[in-house]
Design goal:
The chain has about 350 residues and is α/β, with parallel strands linked by helices. The protein has two domains: about 150 residues, FAD/NAD(P)-binding domain (3-Layer(bba) Sandwich); about 140 residues, no CATH class. It has nine helices and 16 strands. Helix 1 crosses helix 6, helix 3 crosses helix 4 and helix 7 runs parallel beside helix 9. The model has no long low-confidence stretch (mean pLDDT about 95).
């Protein structure tokens, strides 16, 4: 939900005399020059914001309850530059680069599951290369979860780490006891003084645009439905939801869903049907119903806070939401539209 970000309610917020800002509602006239700033949060927003403001503010501190994994690298695709030097046609370059990115993402994701400790050490080594052997990587950059259980923030050209190395930014790993008039009191007893506090604490998931759906005068509760392949819902006619990938380009899945919907529409036309509704088959009635996303697979805060609003999934391929492009790119085009999962009218 872009209109308002997620900000926890901390004790003493009303006592704070400075300015509290959420990145989703960033004031255009915010004056942070030479100011002491505390950014609460350690995700991609914080890692993007801090190097952008660090050159002008007095000092910026990233306050985190627990660390996040980061990837560093050049903000470009090297193979694209090499192919352009060879005067390769741009259409070919686009296709080659696309396949290269997909391949690299798939390999990295697979390794995060099959050899998580090796991936973890590679990520930490990249951070250590910027901050040096004496920096406390264990405290400030070593999460307790395996890589890719939450999103991994990309740091282009290491800019966030460069700000820390230059002394313009710092990281504090602690918990908030309360806000004070001049900053934040931490559980450790330390006080962080701040002229501005930025709550880079995430967002609230907007489930289907906050639309109040009604079917035959009965309000629709999506949490009571079961998802068909993560895009349609039992008992809900003629509707598909485009929900992309967390670990790959969002639009990859948007393309797959669009192709599937077009195939389904053509199938309806052939059958003379004007309405299609997903339904559980007799053999599906007793299958276990599971959360929209497996928390052991992926569990960022914004998903966990909204899981009770989302449809359920089953334990069969038709009723799964796998978040796996390499599986779905083959499954979606081959899905049997007359296997009993759809009622046509």
């Amino acid at each position: 939900r872009h209109s308002r970000g997620y900000t926890p309610e901390w004790v003493g917020m009303a006592d704070y005399k400075g300015q509290i800002v959420h990145p989703q509602n960033w004031p255009e006239d915010l004056d942070y020059a030479a100011k002491k700033i505390v950014v609460i949060g350690s995700g991609a927003t914080a890692a993007t914001l801090i190097p952008a403001i660090a050159p002008e503010c007095g000092h910026v501190t990233m306050l985190q309850r627990s660390p996040t994994y980061f990837r560093t690298g050049r903000n470009a695709v090297e193979i694209a530059d090499e192919l352009r030097e060879l005067d390769i046609d741009e259409t070919w370059i686009h296709e080659i680069v696309r396949k290269k990115i997909l391949h690299d993402q798939a390999v990295f994701t697979d390794r995060s599951f099959t050899e998580p400790e090796a991936v973890k050490q590679e990520l930490l080594a990249a951070v250590r290369a910027y901050l040096g052997p004496d920096y406390d990587i264990e405290t400030h950059f070593t999460p307790k979860y395996r890589p890719w259980r939450q999103r991994i923030a990309f740091i282009p050209d290491g800019d966030f780490l460069e700000a820390i190395r230059a002394g313009k930014a710092s990281v504090v790993t602690d918990e908030i006891e309360k806000f004070t008039e001049g900053g934040i009191l931490l559980r450790s007893g330390r006080i962080l003084e701040a002229d501005i506090i930025v709550t880079a604490t995430g967002f609230n998931l907007n489930v289907l645009g906050d639309i109040n759906f009604v079917i035959d005068e009965k309000p629709l509760v999506f949490a009571d439905t079961v998802t068909y392949r993560g895009m349609m819902f039992t008992g809900v006619p003629n509707m598909a939801w485009v929900f992309g990938y967390f670990r790959a380009s969002w639009t990859l899945r948007a393309d797959l869903v669009a192709d599937f919907v077009c195939r389904l529409l053509n199938h309806m036309k052939e059958k003379g049907a004007r309405k299609v509704t997903p339904r559980l088959r007799p053999e599906d009635k007793d299958m276990p119903l599971l959360p929209w996303i497996d928390p052991e697979n992926f569990n960022p805060g914004y998903m966990m806070r909204s899981m009770h609003l989302l449809p359920k999934r089953g334990d069969k391929p038709e009723w799964q939401h796998t978040q796996d492009y390499w599986t779905e790119k083959d499954q979606f085009p081959a899905a049997d539209l007359d296997d009993g999962c759809f009622a046509y009218e």
